[in-house]
Specification:
The structure is a homodimer. Chain A is an alpha/beta fold and about 325 residues long. Chain A has 3 domains: about 45 residues, 434 Repressor (Amino-terminal Domain) (Orthogonal Bundle), CATH 1.10.260; about 130 residues, 3-Layer(aba) Sandwich (Rossmann fold), CATH 3.40.50.2300; about 130 residues, Response regulator (Rossmann fold). In chain A, about 45% of the residues lie in helices and about 15% in strands. A 6-stranded parallel beta sheet of chain A has the order 2-1-3-4-5-11, sandwiched between helices. A 4-stranded parallel beta sheet of chain A has the order 7-6-8-9, sandwiched between helices. In chain A, strand 8, helix 11 and strand 9 form a beta-alpha-beta unit. Chain A is elongated. The model of chain A has no long low-confidence stretch (mean pLDDT about 95). The structure holds a DNA duplex (30 and 30 nucleotides). Chains A, B: It comes from Planobispora takensis.
DNA sequence: GAGTTCGAGAAAAACGTTTCAAATTTGAGT
DNA sequence: ACTCAAATTTGAAACGTTTTTCTCGAACTC
């Protein structure tokens, strides 16, 4: 198998293993001629550093974990792309975990990340419980919350103002003349869903909001919600969906049932995924700086890992942006 | 930090470290009373196994690498979900790399995977060059090709018949009465693009195929292709796009230019991503068993890793399925 | 009962790096 | 040339597991 280690390289270059390690980790500590001799040996022998040995001795790895709620959602895909780009630029690998909305799966995934001794974890937590994250932090694993504001000052987070976003969306629906409004959402245990509802209610200023809670936030669930809405109590004037996946499913369900959008019902989603603009009736939505979310979170995390001394924890909050298209015109 | 290792657990349980290791790895070798004593100690001390130490000594890890071409493409997201599910079920972690179509980035990612001593690699190669994969295999890292047929019998692969898919798509367009057909594709260095073109040409049986090659396979590129098609030589009767992302962009570009689909031009995509059905004009497409692709590939890989003795290499080829919707009616 | 087998657990030697103090070389200043 | 400090390199001891060999005693066989 892979018989060539740092030792063989050292021998081949006529130096000690320690020097090879220095070439690998602190090249500036090694004189130019020795360095190039070692580098040549590395190349000739096809040496590949054994990451585990390195991690074991050094006490920390060059990997970060990323735990998302739904890898199938383009929102998270975009975040992932941002994370990947920054991490890979700085020489880190990304260990991806998908919790698929299941708390126990998330727990299992975090255990795997802890076992791998990742340097840090980027997580969109599926619930509020901070205990699991504390356990990671106790082990010296930095944690940055993604798309979730931190409640504590000793914790970095990158989030988007969901209350504001919900308010903007519903205010927009109201300004279009809607009176009765429905909010179609995923599980109300999810903070994003809660906050967007809170924003919606704030925009309504006391007037009632009809809430339809679905178990998932997928196009399929959106379509089911359409049927539910139609069969139970009839259609409202306007519908606010907690994400675009739900909204696209809703749109499909409505059109399928012969409902005109926006003629009979106005519809707005959330996230402004790429496909929102291309749908049957182009979808109004609330845009989030998704890719940027991933980038900034990773920069924060790696800063915390690489410069623990100077690192200042930050809770960053982006503002979402209303995108108006056909579905609310 | 994480001061609690196997040693502390051993002491706390009144056994030797070796026994703790046995509880962890071969529980059946340990008598029931000792085992439960050790398990209790593990729980009480909050012990988490150090994956790197384990990998170092054991010589292999519990991670597999997944290298995809574009994590932003729902096709790969679905594959990833399949991989994740199987891997996580069998106790493996997934190291995700996105090559973003760049050969050099793919190379760098593979190096990282090699350094991490992943047990195996699932890869959708961005080009034909088998040398890089051979280098992995030399290091004892199993490789399974995803969405790419293997040319060699000592190599597992899971693919979908792209020639057949291309042929089916174009045959369908022809049966709809189209005479002149355009093929809008990504870089023709990509096998999938080539094969689908080959299939298209086979369906045409010698009649000419107008090929528009774009640098990327994104909605943006698709929209640009629409402009290009309109400005350069006018519209064909029907358009076959190498994937749905291109097709959705194309659709948008066409509608934007006032072209009616399918009235003026028929349009078919490839992959049948979720959003194809929800687009402005619902999109005909060629469906691939995407999630299944990921699952099967991972099962093959883990079988190769866990039972190297009995493992038989397989080259699996799925058949795609034509999905007819409005855009070709 | 003596001889044998068997199972459970202990002890110690790896695995391939990094790290740190110590040793050596180099170079500048006189 | 000679000294002293700085720069470079060395060598050996970790890091936390797994694995292999060994010991000890109990259970079995005749």
């Amino acid at each position: 198998m892979s018989a060539v280690g740092i030792k063989e390289v050292a021998e081949h270059a006529g130096v000690s293993p320690g020097t090879v390690s220095n070439v690998l980790n602190r090249p500036e500590k090694v004189s130019a001629p020795t360095r190039s001799r070692v580098e040549a040996a590395i190349r000739e022998l096809g040496f590949v550093r054994h990451g585990s040995a390195s991690t074991l001795r050094a006490g920390h790895s060059k990997t970060v974990g990323l735990s998302v709620i739904d890898i199938g959602n383009p929102f998270f895909t975009d975040v992932t792309a941002g994370v990947e780009d920054v991490a890979s630029d700085r020489g880190y690998a990304v260990l991806l975990s998908n919790s698929a909305g299941s708390r126990s799966k998330e727990e299992r995934n975090l255990l795997v990340l802890a076992e791998q001794r990742v340097r840090g974890v980027l997580i969109t937590p599926s619930d509020e419980d901070p205990a699991r994250l504390d356990r990671l932090r106790e082990r010296g694993i930095s944690v940055v919350l993604v798309d979730h504001p931190a409640h504590r000052p000793d914790q970095c987070s990158v989030a988007v103002n969901d209350i504001g976003g919900g308010e903007t969306a519903v205010a927009h629906l109201l300004s279009g003349g809607a009176a009765e409004i429905a909010y179609v959402t995923g599980p109300l245990t999810i903070r994003q869903c809660l906050d967007r509802r809170a924003g919606a209610e704030r925009a309504l200023g006391g007037r009632p909001l009809r809430v339809v809670e679905m178990a998932a936030m997928t196009p399929r669930a959106g379509q089911q919600a359409a049927e539910k809405l139609i069969s139970e109590g009839g259609l409202p004037d306007a519908i606010f969906c907690a994400n675009d996946l739900l909204a696209l499913g809703m749109l499909r369900g409505l059109l399928h049932a012969g409902v005109r959008v926006p003629g009979d019902v106005a519809l707005i989603g959330y996230d402004d995924i790429d496909f929102a603009a291309a749908s049957a009736v182009s979808l109004s939505s609330v845009r989030q700086p998704t890719y940027q979310l991933g980038r900034v979170a990773t920069e924060l995390l790696l800063d915390e890992c690489d410069n623990p001394a100077t690192h200042a924890h930050q809770q960053i909050m982006f503002q979402p942006e209303l995108i108006v298209r056909e579905s609310t015109r």
